[in-house]
From TrEMBL:
InterPro entries, per the entry: AB_hydrolase_fold, Hydrolase_4, MAG_DAG_Lipase
Chain ranges passing through the membrane: none
Organism lineage string: Bacteria, Bacillati, Actinomycetota, Actinomycetes, Kitasatosporales
PANTHER family membership: PHOSPHOLIPASE-RELATED
Keyword check for Isomerase: no
GO molecular function: hydrolase activity
This protein's name: Alpha/beta hydrolase
SUPFAM superfamilies, sorted: alpha/beta-Hydrolases
Domain Serine aminopeptidase S33: 45-253
Keyword list, A-Z: Hydrolase
UniProt keyword Iron-sulfur present: no
Length: 326
């Protein structure tokens, strides 16, 4: 059945809402929103891309969509349940107790894209938490004997491990397992970060995004959600076999700080990039890792000179696989 496309909040984009039924975590009815760049019938489609956001995020990166569209890719993005466009009143932002909950909307989105663009390669792209969610979904599809119709994976600063040393991560993980049973929606007190200030035009950044959908200090991190993340990390660390080649982009340095400085614009303020490098091989198959000097946590929201290098790396990777013109 064709999707019911309606105008999106971004000019030049359309959206379709997937009704996901009752929320298994007990917060009403769930929905996910698929966004697409308005098709240009004059441009032949040689592939398609589905982008998935991270925590405290939603799709607004129109420059990323333009990059792929210029190379003949139909561009789609998915706001996951309780995130961005898909969050409903009374729902805890981004909350799920199990990352496998997202399989439902990922299955629907991929099937819809394949129906609109059959017989072309479909690539997945994801940022941060999305970079953990998508490999786990690909693994579950393969384990179930129904591999997703996906040709490649592009990850932008994927969240492959909890920040901090091993001595901290172990006890924290054990406490989360216990607390998630008793108080899953309890918010954790975490240090403030200047990351949002580096991005938004109202502060020191160059990007416009809806502060209701992506607050500068992010949404509260809940015990149950972080427990789901740690279970996802454990599955990744045991080793996956996602069945497609991967490109991983990350910054060349981490800078954890609660105050803004010039370095805040040239480093990952959220994740430990050494952990990304350490666990990249757990995806299985061919994996290309590209450190991007001076990149922010969202590599494609870095300063213009830095993100140009990131786009060049993606372009090279696409051309090497004949998914883009030489």
């Amino acid at each position: 059945m064709p999707l019911d496309w309606k105008p999106d909040l971004l000019d030049g984009f359309q959206q379709h809402t997937f009704d996901l039924g009752r929320d298994p975590d007990g917060e009403g009815t769930a929905a996910a929103v698929l966004v697409r760049k308005e098709p240009d019938d004059a441009v032949p489609v040689r592939g398609a891309v589905l982008y998935t956001h991270g925590f405290s995020d939603y799709f607004f990166q129109t420059e990323l969509a333009d990059f792929f569209a210029a190379r003949g890719f139909a561009f789609y993005a998915l706001d996951l349940r309780k995130c961005g466009r898909a969050r409903r009143p009374g729902q805890t932002a981004h909350y799920v107790s199990d990352l496998a909950r997202y399989d439902q909307e990922l299955d629907l989105a991929v099937a819809a894209i394949a129906a609109e663009h059959p017989d072309v390669p479909l690539l997945l792209a994801a940022h941060s938490t999305g970079g953990l969610i998508l490999p786990l979904w690909l693994q579950r599809r393969r384990a179930a004997g129904s591999p997703a119709p996906v040709s490649g994976l592009i990850l932008n600063s994927p969240w492959f491990d909890l920040q901090g040393g091993a001595a901290q991560r172990g006890p924290v993980t054990q406490l989360l397992r216990l607390a998630a049973r008793a108080v899953p929606l309890r918010a954790l007190r975490l240090p403030a970060s200047p990351y949002g200030d580096t991005l938004h035009r109202s502060r020191t950044g160059e990007w416009d995004f809806d502060l209701e959908l992506k607050p500068l200090q992010g949404f509260p991190v809940t015990v149950g959600w972080l427990n789901a993340i740690r279970r996802g990390h454990a599955a990744l660390h045991r080793g996956l076999d996602i069945g497609v080649p991967s490109l991983i982009l990350r910054s060349d340095r981490t800078h954890f700080s609660t105050r803004y400085s010039e370095l805040s614009d040239r480093a990952d303020l959220i994740l430990d990039v050494a952990q990304i490098a350490r666990w990249a091989g757990c995806l299985g198959g061919e994996t290309t890792v590209v450190p991007v000097p001076g990149a922010r946590h969202d590599v494609f929201l870095s300063r213009s000179d830095v993100r140009a290098r990131a786009y060049d790396a993606v372009d090279t990777w696409l051309r090497q696989r004949a998914w883009a013109s030489s």
